[in-house]
Amino acid sequence: MASEGTAGNAKWVYAFGDGKAEGKSQMRELLGGKGANLAEMSNLGLPVPPGFTITTEVCTYYYAHDKQYPPELKAQVDEALAKVGALTGRTFGDAESPLLVSVRSGARASMPGMMDTVLNLGLNDATVSALAESAGDPRFAYDSYRRFITMYSNVVLGVEHHAFEEALEHYKERKGVELDTELGAEDWKTLIQTYKKIVRDEHGSDFPQEPQDQLWGAIGAVFDSWMIPRAKKYRELNSIPESWGTAVNVQAMVFGNMGDTSATGVAFTRNPSTGERALYGEFLINAQGEDVVAGIRTPQDITEKARIEAKSDRPSMETAMPESFAELTRIYGILEKHYRDMQDMEFTIESGKLWMLQTRNGKRTAKAALKIAVDLASEGLITQEEAILRVEPGALDQLLHPTIDPKAERKVIASGLPASPGAATGEIVFNSEAAEACRKAERKCILVRIETSPEDIHGMHASEGILTTRGGMTSHAAVVARGMGKPCVSGVGTIRIDYKAQTLSVGGQTLKAGDRITIDGSTGQVLLGEVKMLEPELSGDFAQLMGWADAHRTMKVRANADTSTDARTARNFGAEGIGLCRTEHMFFEGDRIIAVREMILADDAEGRRAALAKILPYQRQDFVELFKIMSGLPVTIRLLDPPLHEFLPHTDAEVQEVVAATGVPEDKIRHRMRELSEFNPMLGFRGCRLAIAFPEIAEMQARAIFEAAVQAAEETGSPVTSEVMVPLVFTRAEFDIVKARIDAMAKAVSEEKNATLAYQVGTMIELPRAALKAGEIAETAEFFSFGTNDLTQTALGISRDDAATFLGPYTQKGILPSDPFVTIDQEGVGELVRIGVERGRKVRSGLKLGICGEHGGDPASIGFCQEVGLDYVSCSPYRVPIARLAAAQAALGKVLGGEG
């Protein structure tokens, strides 16, 4: 590794080209993803324009030394530039035979569109004439120069892109033309003078003519773009550390805009939306790469099959450029076999010769990721274990949510490209600020834009789905939406958007901000209003991969479920029992809440028992249903946990309702409300403290559990395994008092029903003292379930409800690696879990251990659970498949929660 200490001999620059390279694909940390893959493609003998990579360590050095470069960097760059010139027969800055280069970022993890690129660097008033002469095409040369001025001025000098766009549009209007391609060399010469004046006016100095100044300006801009807001936001959303930095790739230019035998394009070796094994992508004849991905021109299909499916009347690459198509097909076969994964490739055809500009593992939807992983394993390119590791568990979330019911009436108002699958309904918003406002107000929205840019990243994150009127399947909106797992419809050319009026017009009708639409990212349709959705089908590739995952994981996966609907959903998703049934959720329904309030307002144990007797049949029936749905699988039922004041009325109107329902006088109700109110309810009169003060509550719940177990066993013929969980203990004495009541009730029910009961009594470890005293508690507790939500609150002294105000700065400043309520704090809370596991198992070797906080569905936390030896994780029903896959990956030894 290069460093300041080895400054004299540090290697900061790695060259590639002409069938060899100083780097290779394993050097991603040093060369970034793009640089490592350019080196690898060169080593494979593929046609790659020569160039060099400035390493990520220069980026680190740059920020550590007040934006200064290592002293030996300049000489290494000059040497590498000379090598590129020798391979191309050109010289950088030479007026007769100029070498032109592109300057691109290249982070270790792919960050599409987040950082800056400059093309055609090296052009100036002198070299543009040489380019025109050598190409025999002045129009091409001056078109390239005006593109360079636009891009460089925007990226390096900070001149707004729209200033140049407006000048171009005004010029075309005066000339009476619509398309850029209708402008000739003289037109571009005139516009270049206009563009240079814009730079002078906006930037305060002339556009730089010296190629060396241009080069170092662009290199600095790429390093600077690592810290711009949109890149920071992308890293935050995708857990990419700031310390990684970006590399800079400088490469000889090849031109896709040299006429009808030239083109540029993006291709995937498999369909990134569906996973289908077929070359998939788009290209543009007589264009540069930015034209395809920026969504400014609508591209053409690569294969004839895709062209027919898209009902396009413009020729495919397969028919328009058959030789280049055959060469691309050959190269894609080599790359997929070599990388053993679906590749996302950028290419340029210059005067009939195909050049490869990039390859990387392609971003894909969850559906495609599953299919590709299963297919690659079936094709023998990867093993089943590798297939399991290839699918990001969190991405399964995309498959577990509804799609549009095929029987539903579809009021289709427009159609575009199916850029990212799934369906979403929401109110129309036209900018990212409105999307974020909706999210804060818990309203669902669809972000509607002419085209998205990297600045829209926070709005895309806040919305349910994205709709754009411009751009193709590889546009910014499409790529980012697929990565986020959000539905996206792009290129809906029939829709007209008026940002000022906040309206969307199509087919004679106008919709305004706040009106509801539905988008179907699988068909490309835009529908009026809200449309009925269907639950997902989890068969085929999903079932196949899940089968492999289940065969490899060692931890069980249970669900947190309180209702029969939750329990059925959990079973459908493969849950192996219920790890947490919160009984209080059952108390709020219908007549039950009246009986609960009667119990709380009662003057003595007798009054409480009378009220509890009314709740018993409801509780029993709830448990019967859960036991039957789980058919013999373990069900962990937590005794009443929240403080009693939560069940009392909160408004004057509710107080009057309680008076009417119970006959208790208003002043008595208000007195009890005051008595039970607490300054800090989370640390108040709740959990096992209720069972100790009012044992009749725990007795009623235990009776309901055991009577339900007997009834369910009789009705199904399957034995019932019930686990009764005592919440919020911090000492064995508390647990023993409550356990004695539960055991006594089990004995009573067993005798009354003449039935044998299989049950265990355990506790939730959710207080630091309980973790520290786990050895003592395990002497009588038969299982532990770590309630990591409360354990995080009590260990860190952070209220989950109030943490949002300051956790952002804490993660941004690196004080905490991530939100501790999302991913377990391994050093603190994790240490308490580790202590609880070790001390508990030392006393009771067969102690069953699980986790039932939100962390049970977080892949990074599941990796930790595997490491400390838990028997199971329990999570919300919709996260069960995510947990199953994450548990398999953890068992296979994958380090989760980071990308490396």
TrEMBL record:
<keyword id="KW-0547">Nucleotide-binding</keyword>
<keyword id="KW-0067">ATP-binding</keyword>
<keyword id="KW-0808">Transferase</keyword>
<dbReference type="GO" id="GO:0005524">
    <property type="term" value="F:ATP binding"/>
</dbReference>
<dbReference type="Pfam" id="PF00391">
    <property type="entry name" value="PEP-utilizers"/>
</dbReference>
<dbReference type="InterPro" id="IPR002192">
    <property type="entry name" value="PPDK_AMP/ATP-bd"/>
</dbReference>
<dbReference type="InterPro" id="IPR023151">
    <property type="entry name" value="PEP_util_CS"/>
</dbReference>
<feature type="domain" description="PEP-utilising enzyme mobile">
    <location>
        <begin position="443"/>
        <end position="524"/>
    </location>
</feature>
<dbReference type="InterPro" id="IPR013815">
    <property type="entry name" value="ATP_grasp_subdomain_1"/>
</dbReference>
<dbReference type="Pfam" id="PF02896">
    <property type="entry name" value="PEP-utilizers_C"/>
</dbReference>
<dbReference type="InterPro" id="IPR036637">
    <property type="entry name" value="Phosphohistidine_dom_sf"/>
</dbReference>
<feature type="active site" description="Tele-phosphohistidine intermediate">
    <location>
        <position position="476"/>
    </location>
</feature>
<keyword id="KW-0670">Pyruvate</keyword>
<dbReference type="InterPro" id="IPR040442">
    <property type="entry name" value="Pyrv_kinase-like_dom_sf"/>
</dbReference>
<protein>
    <recommendedName>
        <fullName>Pyruvate, phosphate dikinase</fullName>
        <ecNumber>2.7.9.1</ecNumber>
    </recommendedName>
</protein>
<comment type="similarity">
    <text>Belongs to the PEP-utilizing enzyme family.</text>
</comment>
<feature type="binding site">
    <location>
        <position position="790"/>
    </location>
    <ligand>
        <name>substrate</name>
    </ligand>
</feature>
<dbReference type="GO" id="GO:0046872">
    <property type="term" value="F:metal ion binding"/>
</dbReference>
<keyword id="KW-0479">Metal-binding</keyword>
<dbReference type="GO" id="GO:0016301">
    <property type="term" value="F:kinase activity"/>
</dbReference>
<feature type="domain" description="PEP-utilising enzyme C-terminal">
    <location>
        <begin position="539"/>
        <end position="890"/>
    </location>
</feature>
<keyword id="KW-0418">Kinase</keyword>
<feature type="domain" description="Pyruvate phosphate dikinase AMP/ATP-binding">
    <location>
        <begin position="67"/>
        <end position="374"/>
    </location>
</feature>
<dbReference type="Pfam" id="PF01326">
    <property type="entry name" value="PPDK_N"/>
</dbReference>
<feature type="binding site">
    <location>
        <position position="790"/>
    </location>
    <ligand>
        <name>Mg(2+)</name>
    </ligand>
</feature>
<feature type="binding site">
    <location>
        <position position="582"/>
    </location>
    <ligand>
        <name>substrate</name>
    </ligand>
</feature>
<dbReference type="InterPro" id="IPR000121">
    <property type="entry name" value="PEP_util_C"/>
</dbReference>
<comment type="function">
    <text>Catalyzes the reversible phosphorylation of pyruvate and phosphate.</text>
</comment>
<feature type="binding site">
    <location>
        <position position="787"/>
    </location>
    <ligand>
        <name>substrate</name>
    </ligand>
</feature>
<feature type="binding site">
    <location>
        <position position="789"/>
    </location>
    <ligand>
        <name>substrate</name>
    </ligand>
</feature>
<dbReference type="GO" id="GO:0050242">
    <property type="term" value="F:pyruvate, phosphate dikinase activity"/>
</dbReference>
<dbReference type="InterPro" id="IPR015813">
    <property type="entry name" value="Pyrv/PenolPyrv_kinase-like_dom"/>
</dbReference>
<dbReference type="InterPro" id="IPR010121">
    <property type="entry name" value="Pyruvate_phosphate_dikinase"/>
</dbReference>
<feature type="binding site">
    <location>
        <position position="638"/>
    </location>
    <ligand>
        <name>substrate</name>
    </ligand>
</feature>
<dbReference type="InterPro" id="IPR008279">
    <property type="entry name" value="PEP-util_enz_mobile_dom"/>
</dbReference>
<keyword id="KW-0460">Magnesium</keyword>
<feature type="binding site">
    <location>
        <position position="788"/>
    </location>
    <ligand>
        <name>substrate</name>
    </ligand>
</feature>
<feature type="binding site">
    <location>
        <position position="766"/>
    </location>
    <ligand>
        <name>Mg(2+)</name>
    </ligand>
</feature>
<feature type="binding site">
    <location>
        <position position="766"/>
    </location>
    <ligand>
        <name>substrate</name>
    </ligand>
</feature>
<feature type="active site" description="Proton donor">
    <location>
        <position position="852"/>
    </location>
</feature>
<dbReference type="InterPro" id="IPR018274">
    <property type="entry name" value="PEP_util_AS"/>
</dbReference>
